[in-house]
Amino acid sequence: MSEPAREIVDAIFIAAAPDVRDLPAPVFAEVAFAGKSNVGKSSLINALVGRRKLARTSNTPGRTRELVLFRVQLRDGTFDLVDLPGYGYAKVSKSERRAWGPMIERFLQQRAGLRCVVLIVDVRRGLSDDDLQLLEFLATCDLPALLIATKLDKLPRSKFEPTLRALQRDAGTKVLGFSAETGYGRDALLHTLLEHTGLLPDRPAG
């Protein structure tokens, strides 16, 4: 049975902006979600919060071109979730790709409420050069990174652990598997986010 603080009771859209300076000031602890444009980031967010259409999914990768702020209401607490523009999609113009880099970097460097960055990769494709560069940048910003390997349902169950271990070795950071189709890994992801945002309930000693 879920702990009361881990039960999400609502999740709503708050704002979208082309720059961190245009977002509302942080009110609650925030976690950001980053990744390439075709890794299932919107589907993961929707599965995490239990809302089918909170984050916009599309057959056209690269559709999210702004910083998008959502508010997640728990039974005993609140945190905010920021969906960062996807990167690395070839059909997006070079000028747009160049603009998104500084946009994401400014957000990561300047957002005072940010507690953790979730980097999402397709488990079948592993880490790209862009992903590795982002992990290096997060380290320079002293921001905790959590790697989520999505689309785990596309692998045989026997491949789960070996594939995740290999990703963790390559990334040098914690890795969790996730499937928006089956819900695998959802509770583990939420638990980890609540650890970073300070929303886990105090546990009795002993």
Keywords:
single chain, 206 residues, alpha/beta, Rossmann fold, seven-stranded mixed beta sheet, 7 strands, 30% helix, 24% strand
Quick overview:
This protein has 206 residues and is of the alpha/beta class. The chain has helices spanning 41-49, 94-110, 129-140, 160-171, 186-197; strands at residues 8-17, 30-35, 67-74, 77-83, 114-122, 145-150, 175-177.
Which CATH-level-2 architecture? 3-Layer(aba) Sandwich
Overall structural domain count: 1
Low-confidence stretches: 58-63
Q: What's the mean pLDDT score?
A: 86
Largest sheet, in brief, is: 7 strands, mixed
Query: What is the CATH class name?
Result: Alpha Beta
Question: Order of strands across the widest beta sheet?
Answer: 1-3-4-2-5-6-7
Oligomer: single chain
N- to C-terminal distance: 21 Å
Number of helices: 5
**Fraction in beta strands:** 15-25%
Can you count the beta strands? 7
Task: Name the structural class.
Answer: alpha/beta
At the third CATH level, what is the topology name?
Rossmann fold
Helix content: 25-40%
Shape: globular
Radius of gyration: 16 Å
